[in-house]
Amino acid sequence: MDYQKLIEAHRNKKADVTCAVLASMRNRDSEFGIFKVDSDNKVTEFREKLGEKPVKCISVENSGKSNDSVHNNFLGMGIYVINRDVMKKLLREYFPRANDLRSEVIPGAISLGMKVHAYCFDGYWEDMRSIKAFYQANMESTKKTNIGYNFYDKDSPLYTLPRHLPPSLITDAVITDSVIGDGCILNTRVGDGAIIEDSILMGSDAYQMQDVQANGIQGKDMDILIGIGEGSHVRKAIVDKNARIGKNVMIINKDNVQEANMEAYGYTIKAGIVVILRGAVIPNGSIL
C-alpha cells in the first residue's frame, strides 16, 4: 500500500478518522471487522463479522445516521488514519476506559457522528494471522501467473534491511517455481535425492559441516545435521529454523490430518500443513 494515497484521501475528505478497507470480499473471515459504507465512502456501521449486529458504544447515541440508501460492506484492514486532536478527545473525554481501537474507539467515533470515512484499497494485502494464511501467501509469491505480490515490480519496490549474507550456492539441483533467499547452500543442507514440494524452509542460524563428528564434536542427534537429509520427501510443509530432518524421511501428511499437536515429536499440523518446529529433530526413516 502507498500510504501517501491513504493520507491524501483522508485530507481531501476532511475526515476525522479514515479506515482502510479491502475492495474485495474474497476473504470473509477477517479479524478486523466489516465496515458498512455509503456512496460517499462514509462509514455508517461497524460489525465484528458479517451477519452480526452493529457494534455500538454504551451510553452514546448515533447522531450521524446517513440518509443514503446505497451501502456496501467492506473488510477492514486494521489500518487507520486519525487526526491527533480527534484521538485525544476519543481517548481522554469520550472513551477513557477503552482498551481496543478497532472494537471500541472506532465504533465510538461512528456513534458520535464523527466523519469516519473508508479508503478502499484494491491492491495486494494478506492478513498473516494464521499458519494457513502465511503458507498461502508464500506459495502465491512463487506463481508464474496470477502472482499475489510481485517482489520485482520496479514501480513498487520493497524496502527491507539487508542481512549481509553471502550469495546462495546451488549445485546439482533441479528447482522450479521457487524463491531462494540469500546465504543458502543447496547441496549439503538439502541432501542428494531429496524432494521438496510446495513447502517453506526457514533456513538455519548456523551451518554444520559434514565432517562435524570427525572433528570430535559429538552429542545427542549430532549424526543428523541441520537441514534435510538424503532421500527425504517434504510436501506442503513449513520447516522452521535449525530443524534436523534425517535421511529417507517422508513429511507428506499421508493420512491428510487437518489438526494435530505433536510438539513432543517436533511437529504440529495446522489446516493440513505440517509445521516442523524450530530446532526439531526428525529421525531417519520417519513418516509424518
TrEMBL record:
<dbReference type="Pfam" id="PF25247">
    <property type="entry name" value="LbH_GLGC"/>
</dbReference>
<dbReference type="Pfam" id="PF00483">
    <property type="entry name" value="NTP_transferase"/>
</dbReference>
<feature type="domain" description="Nucleotidyl transferase">
    <location>
        <begin position="1"/>
        <end position="143"/>
    </location>
</feature>
<comment type="similarity">
    <text>Belongs to the bacterial/plant glucose-1-phosphate adenylyltransferase family.</text>
</comment>
<dbReference type="GO" id="GO:0005978">
    <property type="term" value="P:glycogen biosynthetic process"/>
</dbReference>
<dbReference type="InterPro" id="IPR005835">
    <property type="entry name" value="NTP_transferase_dom"/>
</dbReference>
<dbReference type="InterPro" id="IPR011004">
    <property type="entry name" value="Trimer_LpxA-like_sf"/>
</dbReference>
<dbReference type="GO" id="GO:0008878">
    <property type="term" value="F:glucose-1-phosphate adenylyltransferase activity"/>
</dbReference>
<protein>
    <recommendedName>
        <fullName>Nucleotidyl transferase domain-containing protein</fullName>
    </recommendedName>
</protein>
<dbReference type="InterPro" id="IPR029044">
    <property type="entry name" value="Nucleotide-diphossugar_trans"/>
</dbReference>
<dbReference type="InterPro" id="IPR011831">
    <property type="entry name" value="ADP-Glc_PPase"/>
</dbReference>
